[in-house]
Design the sequence.
């Protein structure tokens, strides 16, 4: 009886603690959202009110007119979707080869891919810029897509997964006369669907939220991605907060939709993807 | 048979191989070469190790480097502890509403670094932010969050912990739920308290995951750039300018490409040392288990 009471007490206390912390995590985003519905004169008038007194969509209308969001969204979507498709294909085939074939040069290549995690683009921006110029990729969306296709994380995710697939399946398909390409596309790729979806979500998030590649590659405002456009507002000497608040919220919408649709795949990541320690 | 497989293996890795050569090997070698030259985007003149010698006497390089180290030194434990705390709470038998809480903690993963910067800049505005408003309501004096270097640094740390919890939380939860129940039952028989169970069962069982989380966090913090760009822009002065921003400003704004590349190489060596150390420790951990 006593221990049951204790149990109840502990549950109440811990649940309360959990939600206090959760509220602290939630608050900045709620505050941004509520602020974005305030008219300009209410934003800075003390004492601050949590809820807008005269809620308005003016800020959104303003930012929709000022910023060419459709253009930025289209640019970013093209980059994110094309890169994601190519990333999944390239990572799956590469991970498959690394898991299922035994050649010395493949092991060397595996170590090379490991090395890429140690020298990320952020570290060698200038030489990367020279290469982009040299390859005629400067100021083009292709310049954002092509270099971002290769990802060590994606390759390792697929490699881990394919290592758990029994070799017998491959052997029997070979005996049936299927060539390796057919085995990969018709047998291996379909069974790795969960990994493919997880990586696709990751890749989309990486590209949608990416800042460094567009910063290096783009200069024409017509090709701006969402993040670079946002940066142009926040980097101004006098920040136009009305514009910035609503634009930031708008920029979050696509990721939120992705999250709602694919929640299950994202939340299971730690357990399924082999990114486990 | 064997031979055609070799051909196929090559086809399967071809895309990544080409990309590796073009966007990793080539820039890496070019970076080594640039670091040995005086290069402003037009003509590269070979000057040997001069860039490196100048770099080690450059106070602004030291400042960016030491700020980055300090940021990593405080930020990594902060990210580790908050993520672990949240994960333990979310796997405890004594909490309700786990699903909704998990979504709340995960939400920051969806938010881009630029917007994370905007969020916290808005929260910590000196004359208009919510935090200073609350401080004034409870009778305190407003804190110079953006004009004082140390306070600005604290805001960067807050933002880092907020943004970094989500992904690490997923990794930790994955590890915690795979700890065998029998270990906890054995601890129950011995009459262990919740804290003892955490310290003697949970923590040792997720040892290798901890190493992974710490390694990822060290890497992420050492190369922090976008979030700080929109949060403080490296300021006030250069008080929150970390090494990647320093490299960017030197290489692109000032067009001192050779010098910036030398700084890149130093950063690369540091990251390499971190991962080798980590590799050793992580391996040691597995041998002990």
Sequence:
């Amino acid at each position: 009886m006593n221990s049951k009471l204790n149990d109840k007490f502990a549950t109440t206390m811990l649940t309360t603690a959990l939600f206090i912390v959760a509220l602290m995590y939630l608050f900045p985003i709620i505050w941004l959202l509520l602020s974005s519905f305030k008219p300009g004169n209410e934003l800075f008038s003390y004492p601050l009110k949590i809820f807008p007194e005269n809620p308005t969509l003016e800020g959104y209308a303003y930012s929709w007119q000022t910023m060419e969001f459709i253009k930025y969204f289209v640019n970013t979507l093209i980059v994110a979707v094309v890169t994601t498709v190519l990333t999944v294909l390239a990572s799956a085939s590469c991970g498959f080869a690394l898991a299922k074939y035994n050649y010395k040069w493949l092991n060397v290549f595996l170590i090379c891919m490991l090395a890429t995690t140690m020298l990320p683009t952020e570290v060698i921006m200038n030489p990367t810029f020279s290469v982009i110029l040299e390859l005629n990729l400067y100021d083009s969306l292709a310049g954002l897509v092509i270099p971002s296709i290769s990802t060590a994380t994606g390759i390792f995710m697929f490699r881990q997964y394919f290592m758990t697939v029994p070799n017998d399946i491959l052997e029997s398909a070979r005996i049936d006369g299927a060539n390796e390409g057919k085995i990969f596309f018709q047998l291996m790729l379909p069974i790795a669907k969960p990994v493919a979806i997880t990586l696709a979500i990751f890749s989309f998030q990486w590209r949608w939220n990416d800042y460094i590649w567009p910063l290096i590659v783009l200069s024409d405002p017509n090709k701006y991605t969402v993040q670079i456009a946002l940066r142009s507002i926040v980097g101004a000497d006098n920040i136009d907060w009305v514009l910035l608040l609503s634009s930031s919220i708008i920029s979050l919408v696509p990721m939120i939709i992705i999250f709602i649709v694919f929640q299950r795949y994202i939340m299971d990541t730690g357990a399924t993807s082999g990114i486990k320690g | 048979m064997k031979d055609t497989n070799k051909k196929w293996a090559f086809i399967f890795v071809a895309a990544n191989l080409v990309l590796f050569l073009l966007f990793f090997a080539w820039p890496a070698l070019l970076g080594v070469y640039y670091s040995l030259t005086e290069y402003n985007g037009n003509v590269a003149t070979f000057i040997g190790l001069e860039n490196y010698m100048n770099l080690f006497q450059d106070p602004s390089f030291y400042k960016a480097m030491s700020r980055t180290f300090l940021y990593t030194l405080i930020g990594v434990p902060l990210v580790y502890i908050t993520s672990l705390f949240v994960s333990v709470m979310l796997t405890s038998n004594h909490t309700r509403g786990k699903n909704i809480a998990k979504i709340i903690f995960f939400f920051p993963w969806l938010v881009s670094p630029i917007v994370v910067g905007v969020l916290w800049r808005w929260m910590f505005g000196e004359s208009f932010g919510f935090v200073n408003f609350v401080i004034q309501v409870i009778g305190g004096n407003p804190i110079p969050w953006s004009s004082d270097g140390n306070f600005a640094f604290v805001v960067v740390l807050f933002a880092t912990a907020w943004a970094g919890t989500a992904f690490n939380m997923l990794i930790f939860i994955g590890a915690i739920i795979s700890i065998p129940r029998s270990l906890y039952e054995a601890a129950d028989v011995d009459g262990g308290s919740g804290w003892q169970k955490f310290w003697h069962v949970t923590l040792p069982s997720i040892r290798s995951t901890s190493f992974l989380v710490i390694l990822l966090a060290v890497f992420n913090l050492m190369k922090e750039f976008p979030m700080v760009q929109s949060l403080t822009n490296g300021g006030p002065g250069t008080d929150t300018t970390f090494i990647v921003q320093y490299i960017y400003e030197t290489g692109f704004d000032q067009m001192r490409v050779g010098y910036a590349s030398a700084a890149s190489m130093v950063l690369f060596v540091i990251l390499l040392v971190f991962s080798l150390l980590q590799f050793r420790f992580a391996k040691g951990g597995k041998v002990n288990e």
Observations:
- Residues 271-277 of chain A have pLDDT under 50 and may be disordered.
- The radius of gyration of chain A is 24 Å.
- DSSP finds 15 helices and no strands in chain A.
- The domain at 76-272 of chain A is CATH 1.10.3720.10 (MetI-like fold).
